[in-house]
Automatic annotation (TrEMBL):
Transmembrane segments: none annotated. Keywords: Amino-acid biosynthesis, Pyridoxal phosphate, Transferase, Transit peptide. This is Cysteine synthase A. Its cofactor is pyridoxal 5'-phosphate.
Length: 336
């Protein structure tokens, strides 16, 4: 049995899980990469670690010496950054829109992050959490003072982490028998990095971006212009209505689909009650997209997707009957 060297050594080698109901419904092998099994509980641990490893390589941060990591996040990247920073003796300042799930906010406080809540603002507004975090890092002295602005949306170390780890793991775990990969995008790092890794092995692997309603990345893939689709979504940390993040630029994406919340939540609830797998909304969206792609490709194919994080981080929303009814979303029978 391998022994991991703390948090930094444990962000690797998550299993692929066969999703039985989705596989049987499509005649394909639909496999979910269990990223909720990372030590910080989400796929964002990989981006966090890659960004901090890059900062160490560039001499911005030094393990055991004073340093601070600053980032604007929907929550999961902040959790990964804070835990990884704790493990190396650094502080973390995490800026989060106040509308994110209570569970993620409580967790950030619990692990010692300096949590700064801001009102939700569009990207064009200077009060947007991304811009607030960047200004904070600058005001604290920037890299010359040992303060890293993680910049997950445009930092190439994000996508590179997935290109070097997540993508090769998927290739090896499937024995190279992967026909398609679906993934939602917040920063774009997971999709872009995995896409580059898989396409380098077989350029016929189909890469499909999964987008929630209200985001403009589906239109960007198809037309080159970000244009938000009608509606909105209760999923957190995915979709972009204003721009395509730097991580997505040049990524080899073949297609995209927009998934309504009801379709995504159907998969969240099915995975939980039928297969014993607890995931959040973005994972439900990813699985719904994988099912669509599998049906379009036909039986006998292997489609891989990402189970981004666990459902416990959304108990007050996705598993709250009052919240679901308020949003006009289905309430599963065991919660009703």
């Amino acid at each position: 049995m391998a022994i991991a060297d703390g948090f930094w050594g444990a962000v690797l080698d998550t299993p692929l899980i066969r999703l039985h109901r989705a596989s049987e419904a499509t005649g394909c092998e639909i496999l979910g990469k269990a990223e909720f099994m990372n030590p910080g509980g989400s796929v964002k641990d990989r981006a966090a670690l890659g960004i901090l490893q890059d900062a160490v390589a560039r001499g911005v941060l030094t393990p055991g010496k004073p340093g601070t990591v600053v980032e604007g996040t929907a929550g999961n990247t902040g959790i990964g950054l804070a835990l990884a920073a704790n493990a190396r003796g650094w502080k973390s300042v995490i800026v989060v829109p106040e509308t994110q799930s209570r569970e993620k906010l409580d967790f950030l406080r619990m692990i010692g992050a300096d949590l700064r809540l801001v009102p939700p603002k569009p990207y064009a507004d200077p009060g947007n959490y991304v811009h607030v975090s960047r200004r904070l890092a600058e005001e604290m002295g920037g890299e010359a003072a040992g303060v890293l602005y993680a910049n997950q949306f445009d930092n190439p170390a994000n996508g590179r982490a997935h290109e070097q780890t997540t993508g090769p793991e998927i290739w090896n775990q499937t024995g190279g028998k992967v026909d398609a990969f679906t993934c939602a995008c917040g920063t774009g790092g997971t999709l872009a990095g995995v896409a580059r890794a898989l396409k380098a092995k077989n350029d016929k692997v189909r890469i499909v971006l999964a987008d929630p309603e209200g985001s403009g990345l589906d239109a960007w893939v198809k037309t080159g212009t970000v244009k938000a689709s009608p509606g909105s979504s209760v999923t957190e940390g995915i979709g972009q209505a204003a721009r395509a993040p730097g991580n997505l630029q040049g990524a080899p994406i073949d297609d995209s689909v927009t998934i309504p919340d009801a379709e995504a939540l159907e998969q969240v609830f099915s995975l939980l009650i039928d297969e014993g797998i607890s995931v959040g909304g973005s994972a439900g969206l990813n699985v719904a997209a994988a099912i669509r792609v599998a049906k379009a490709m036909g039986p006998g194919h292997t489609v891989v997707t990402v189970l981004c994080d666990g459902g416990a981080r959304y108990q007050s929303k996705l598993f709250n009957p009052a919240f679901l009814r308020e949003k006009g979303l289905p309430v599963p029978s065991w919660l009703a």
